[in-house]
């Protein structure tokens, strides 16, 4: 969905790649250290910190608010989580628009992937291996455990330690200085602790990967390719700064992968569609370069992923207003897979660009009968209604959507616009207040809700709702400020 999506982003904790293992779960001989962080930070406290950092990241980094990509990585992530050990928190998966290879995890089950990761991962299993590694960082509470380790050697507060650790992961050069500004011995201890975490995340990650029926060999394969590519680089990517790939680590994952029975994993068309979408829209390259990449890569690819390259070209044509070319491709793709959300989303954009929102509405309404409440179809449907000037209908759908997915800024942006169209300033202010809160701009959020309350009828239920939300925001603001 091109339209009104707004890129925002994060300030997180980096992580690396992992490998799978089901039958080996009892042969890993890992130490019982998964709960060692309890004396420093509780699970509930981790959730509070995670929510706070996520809001800061949205405000400061280019988080990719793309419904189709979000749905895809969420599906892969939760497939892995369902196969992971020691899951104690909900998980949130999101993407950051950055061509550098990186992935990281932080408090409260938040896992971030750079779009650049898709440019280097050749298969879905390679992507999943990175995600499984990050999930292991969360389930084994590596960040909280590292905080406990630092707390033994530093008089800093938990808040200061949390901030410097997150900085160390998100901005390695600056973060390591902030984290270990004491002695060389302290720095070496921190590095050693990080290395042990990386190896543990690899071991747990590979077990998760195997249970989730991904190809475990793609972890050492991906590790080895990255190590070879950047072996002599003067400026390695962020992921290799925070998750170095010494030869013994690659060898260890390769040996573990060999202990699993061979598994034939077919190429994932959805992975390649996601990859094509990133090349077309989030790689920061010109249209001609993107089209050339699709042409060249398609010649070397297997036939079963060929539609992904056509899809990528269609997005480039669509984004450059070459609507006839885009329509030819998308019509063919959609006839082959009429319920595919990548295609439905693109065709919806096409109809709207052609000033035919009614066609998009009809198509998406039919799709919702097959997949009721699907987020991608629903947000596109609401957008089609809005473009077709059916504002009240769009508002009704968006009210439910924002209730079900309150952290998705797409819904709030559309709801704000729809209320502007019907002249409802109060609800527009409230929707914008929610966007401000999601970006940790608490005072601005409270101000917008206060304005909405002043416009509402005195003593009305609507005013009471606004005032109740202001009370909630004040509590959230105070809790947020107390973390600093």
Fold topology:
Layout: E1 14-15, H1 43-60, H2 67-81, E2 92-96, E3 103-106, E4 110-114, H3 116-120, H4 124-139, H5 142-153, H6 158-170, H7 172-179, H8 184-211, H9 218-229, H10 238-242, H11 247-258, H12 269-281, H13 287-300, H14 306-319, H15 323-336, H16 341-353, H17 357-370, H18 375-387, H19 391-404, H20 409-421, H21 425-438, H22 442-455, H23 461-482
Parallel strand pairs: 2-4
Antiparallel strand pairs: 1-3, 3-4
Helix pairs in contact: 2-4, 4-8, 4-9, 5-6, 5-8, 6-7, 8-11, 9-11, 12-14, 13-14, 14-15, 14-16, 15-16, 16-17, 16-18, 17-18, 18-19, 18-20, 19-20, 20-21, 21-22, 22-23
Keywords: Hydrolase, Metal-binding, Metalloprotease, Periplasm, Protease, Signal, Zinc
Binding site for Zn(2+): 133, 137, 198
Subcellular location: Periplasm
Keywords, please?
484 residues; mainly alpha; 4 strands; 3% strand; Putative beta-barrel assembly-enhancing protease; metalloendopeptidase activity; TPR-like_helical_dom_sf; protease; Mito/Outer_Membr_Metalloprot
Brief digest:
The chain is mainly alpha-helical and 484 residues long.
Would you give an account of this structure?
- This protein is mainly alpha-helical.
- The chain has a domain at 14-258.
- It has helices at 43-60, 67-81, 116-120, 124-139, 142-153, 158-170, 172-179, 184-211, 218-229, 238-242, 247-258, 269-281, 287-300, 306-319, 323-336, 341-353, 357-370, 375-387, 391-404, 409-421, 425-438, 442-455, 461-482, and strands at residues 14-15, 92-96, 103-106, 110-114.
- The chain has a four-stranded mixed beta sheet.
- Strand 3 and strand 4 form a beta hairpin.
- Helix 4 (124-139) crosses helix 9, helix 9 runs antiparallel to helix 11 (247-258) and helix 22 runs antiparallel to helix 23.
- The radius of gyration is 23 Å and the shape is flat.
- The two termini are 36 Å apart.
- 51% of the residues are buried.
- Mean pLDDT is 84; it is low at 2-38 and 171-192.
- The active site is at residues 134, 202.
């Amino acid at each position: 969905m091109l339209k009104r999506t707004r890129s925002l982003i994060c300030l997180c904790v980096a992580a690396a790649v992992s490998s799978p293992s089901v039958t080996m779960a009892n042969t890993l001989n890992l130490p019982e250290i998964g709960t060692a962080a309890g004396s420093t930070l509780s699970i509930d406290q981790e959730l509070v910190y995670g929510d706070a950092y996520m809001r800061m990241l949205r405000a400061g980094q280019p988080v990719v608010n793309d419904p189709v990509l979000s749905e895809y990585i969420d599906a892969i992530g939760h497939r892995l989580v369902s196969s992971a050990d020691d899951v104690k928190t909900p998980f949130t998966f999101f993407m950051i628009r950055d061509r550098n290879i990186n992935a990281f995890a932080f408090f409260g089950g938040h896992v971030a992937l750079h779009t650049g990761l898709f440019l280097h991962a050749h298969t879905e299993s390679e992507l999943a291996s990175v995600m499984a590694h990050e999930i292991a960082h969360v389930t084994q509470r590596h960040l909280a455990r590292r905080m406990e380790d630092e707390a033994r050697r530093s008089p800093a507060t938990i808040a200061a330690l949390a901030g410097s650790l997150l900085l160390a992961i998100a901005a390695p050069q600056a973060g390591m200085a902030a984290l270990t500004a004491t002695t060389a011995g302290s720095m070496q201890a921190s590095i050693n602790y990080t290395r042990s975490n990386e190896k543990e995340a690899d071991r747990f990650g590979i077990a998760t990967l195997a249970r989730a029926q991904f190809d475990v060999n793609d972890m050492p394969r991906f590790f080895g390719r990255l190590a070879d590519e950047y072996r002599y680089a003067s400026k390695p990517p962020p992921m290799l700064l925070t998750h170095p790939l010494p030869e013994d680590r690659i060898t260890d994952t390769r040996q573990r992968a060999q202990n699993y029975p061979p598994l034939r994993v077919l190429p994932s068309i959805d992975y390649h569609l996601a990859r094509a979408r990133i090349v077309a829209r989030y790689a920061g390259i010109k249209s001609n370069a993107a089209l050339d990449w699709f042409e060249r890569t398609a010649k070397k690819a297997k036939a079963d992923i060929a539609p992904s390259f056509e899809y990528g070209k269609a997005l480039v044509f669509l984004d450059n207003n070459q609507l006839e070319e885009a329509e030819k491709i998308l019509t063919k793709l959609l006839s082959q897979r009429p319920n595919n959300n990548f295609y439905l989303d693109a065709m919806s954009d096409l109809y709207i660009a052609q000033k035919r929102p009614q066609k998009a509405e009809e198509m998406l309404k039919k799709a919702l009968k097959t997949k009721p409440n699907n987020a991608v179809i629903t947000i596109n449907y609401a957008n089609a209604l809005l473009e077709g000037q059916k504002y009240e209908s769009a508002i009704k759908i968006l009210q439910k959507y924002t209730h079900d997915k309150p952290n998705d800024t797409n819904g709030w942006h559309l709801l704000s616009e729809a209320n502007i169209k019907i002249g409802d300033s109060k609800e527009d202010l409230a929707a914008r207040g929610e966007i401000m809160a999601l970006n940790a701009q608490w005072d601005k959020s409270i101000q917008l809700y206060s304005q909405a309350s002043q416009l509402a009828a005195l003593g009305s239920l609507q005013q009471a709702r606004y005032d109740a939300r202001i009370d909630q925001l004040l509590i959230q603001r105070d809790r947020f400020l107390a973390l600093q």
